[in-house]
Amino acid sequence: MKKTKKSGQQPLLADLFIKIGKKIGVTVFVEKEWGVVGQLSYSNGIKKYFRGTTVDINTMGASEIARDKDYSKIFMDKMGYRVIPWKKFYSNSWAQKIKSNQTIDKAFAYAIKLGLPVFLKPNSKSQGVGVTKVYTKTEFYKVFYSISRIDNVILVEKTIAGKDYRVVVLDDEIISAYERIPLMVTGTGKLSVIQLLKRKQREFKKAGREKTFTLDDPRLKAVLQRQRMTFDSVISKDQTVQLLYNANLSSGGTSFDVTEKVHPFYKDLAIRLTKDMGLRMCGVDMIIEGDIFSPTEQYYIIEINSAPGLDHYAALGKKQQGIVEQLYTKVLIAMGKM
Question: What is 85-159's CATH number, 3.30.1490.20, 3.40.1490.10, 2.60.40.10, 1.20.1540.10?
Fold first, then answer.
């Protein structure tokens, strides 16, 4: 989401804020080199700021908690929300520094207790970075050490089956909701996996999705190997092959808009959770056995996001672009009153 001199393109929020600002009388200044930070100046003298997808709508303390997967889970669990069973562990170097024994061997013992396969996640990263489903002891140790290079805190999480949803809340309103589908390719009977992936990258770029999967992501190769395939394998016509287990749109996932179909049970859940976590704007990620159209007790909160990026959602079509513009219009107006 950077501005480049070659393309002259600015991130979604920069362009959008400039457009909205003109409509509602807010002066928007965007730093010119990269275009990812900006200042909003209101007629009443208030000044607010944004960086990437982070805007001055949530308080700093609540935002910092939301960015930490472990801490946010602790508070959600304490308040009675159904969160996916998890436990945090530490890289060897960090464990030595803080004098903890919660290192890789203890982590694997916990994984066995949960039952393989489990998910390993870097605690402080977003957009699906490093999130990996592991099936064996060898995979577990390899991935744990790999994540240790980008985060000192690693979460071990139970695998839960179901449909993955993100619900975006602003105060007492559900702004958008969509089902997230992990990265997949569908065969033609002629093209190889790598050819299908490159084609998908071109499609994403054409649709305006600046951040997506990379072909050198080691998780792609691992998932293919589990299916006894390689990048050179030719997929049969109409056969679908899943290539990642996490459904983040930033790592190649796709989405289906379900905003108009969300059951009141989940609307109330997302709005209440957002308030209980001290946030005004929040992306609530949940996994549901069944779907979001009818209530069930078989659901879990995956995590929350205090700066939900909506560029991928906007890329779904003109209707979604309109929803995103309406959302940020409300955000800008609300910030001018704070």
Answer: 3.30.1490.20
